[in-house]
Amino acid sequence: MPTGVRVRRRRTMRYPVRAAVLFSWTTSGELRRGAGFTHDLSITGAYVVSESGCDVQVGQQVWLEGVLPPLVIHGEGMSFRAQGVVVRKGSQREQPGFAVMADLEFAEKRSVC
User: Fold this and answer.
1) For residue 71, what pLDDT is reported?
2) Whole-angstrom distance between the N-terminal and C-terminal Cα of the chain?
3) pLDDT value at position 20?
4) What is the DSSP letter of 7?
């Protein structure tokens, strides 16, 4: 490995889960909102795929709300919330979006039809 190259290791396992997500952030005192899907998530963050997420900047605080898909047909999904910080924006090789570092909080089960 070349000198000066830092290898960043993830602290937790990421799971390829597509979950609908709403997010919001504040820019110049104005509340902005967006919607998208998770590409993957872990207990410490997620990658959110969204065209409207392209306005979110690295270092910015965001609030996420989403619903995990049910594990079985006619089962129940679980909702989650998080408040976190954008740690990077998607590269040209990825779908448009951003990665957020946050502790996900899971809530009561919800019926999903």
Assistant:
1) 76
2) 50
3) 93
4) P
CATH number, domain at 83? 2.30.110.10
Does residue 65 form part of some domain? yes
Q: Which residue has the tokens 């899971």?
A: 106
Residue 107 pLDDT > 90: no
In angstroms, the CA 49 to CA 45 distance is 13
How high is the mean pLDDT of the chain?
83
Residue 89 lies in a domain: yes
Per-residue pLDDT at 34: 94
Contact 68, 75 (CB under 8 A): no
Query: 49: which residues sit within 8 A by CB, 6+ positions away?
Result: 36, 37, 38, 39, 90, 95, 96, 97
Expressed as residue numbers, the domain containing 94 is: 20-111
Residue 68 included in any domain? yes
The total domain count for the chain is 1
